[in-house]
Amino acid sequence: MGHVVRISCLVLIIFCSLPFQSPTEARIGGFTIEIIPRHSKLSPFYNHSVTLRDRSRSDAFRSIARAKRFHSSSLDTKYIESTIFPDGSYTNGVLAVDIFIFDSTDGQRVALTNAMFGCGHNNGGNLGSGLVGLGAGPLSLISQLGRNIDYRFSYCLPVTNSASKLKFGGDAILSGPGVVSTPLTIYSSDTLYHYYLTLEGASVGNKKIVNSQTASNEGNIIIDSGTTLTMLESSFYNDLEAVLRETISLETIRDPDGNYHLCYDQRSFSNIPEMTVVFHFNGADVPLKKLNVFRPISTDLTCLAMLPTKVLRIWFLQASSPIRSLLVILA
Question: Which domain holds residue 171?
Fold first, then answer.
C-alpha cells in the first residue's frame, strides 16, 4: 500500500478522454468499483507465456523484497523520485492535480476533484501501470476522498481468475454472521501507509502456537494486498511449520528453487483430509482452509504460502478456494 497515488500519464490521458457524463461528487452514500487481480486471466496484462513455477518464483522474490520495506521517497510540489522496492523498481515525474472519475458498478460516475497524484514519466521495474495508495498517508486516495467516504473502504479477496469489488463509504459497511473485527494500529511518520494488526497466534486443529511478539508489540504485523505470501516472524513461523509438518504427516519435497520452505507432492497433498488453520488476531479469529494456506508452485508441487522474516511481518490471505473473505479498513 503506497502512500502516493501513482498513475502513468498515458493512463491518465486515456482515462480522462472517456465520455463525460456529469459525474457526482464522491459522497458518504458510498460507491463500488470493479478490480481485477494482477494474476487473473481476466486482466489485460496477464501473460499467458509465464509458467506457474515462474509466477511462483516471482511471487516469492517480490514478497521477500516487500518485507525488507520500501525505500524512502522524496516528494515536493514539483518533482517526485522514488525507489519503491528493494528490487530496483522506480518512478520519477511530477506531482500533478486533476479530476479523477470512477465508473461505479451502479452505472454512475463518481468524481474526485483536485486529486493530487504522481504522474510518472520514467518508470521501471514491477510497477505495472501505476500504484493506487490506499494507506493512511495524506496523499493516498483514501485520505483525499476523506470525509466523503468517512475514511472507509473494503475489498474482497477473490478466488482465482475472478473479478473483485473495491467499496467506498457506505458501501463498505458490513454486518451479519461471520463478520469479525480487530483494532488497527497506525503509526506516525513514514509508516502511515501501513495498517498494523496484532497477531496473537495461530491454531492448527487443537494445537495452538503463541506469537511471542504479542506481549511486547501491539501492532506486530501489517496487512498488505501487494504481497503474495504471508511473512511471519522467524520463531513464530518455525513453530507453525513444525505443527503443520506433524499434522500433515507426509514426506516433504524440497523446492528446487529454494524459495519455499515446506512443500509436498501435489497429488498426495490433495488427498489428505481437510484441515483448518486459524489466525488469532486481537478480538478476531480468521479460519483458513488448506487451499488458503498452501499454494501450487508447479504442476507437481504444493508449498506453504508463508515464509519467515526478521524484518517487516506481512499477513496476506490468498483466496484460492471458494470462501467469502472481505477486508474492511476503518481509518
Answer: 6-330
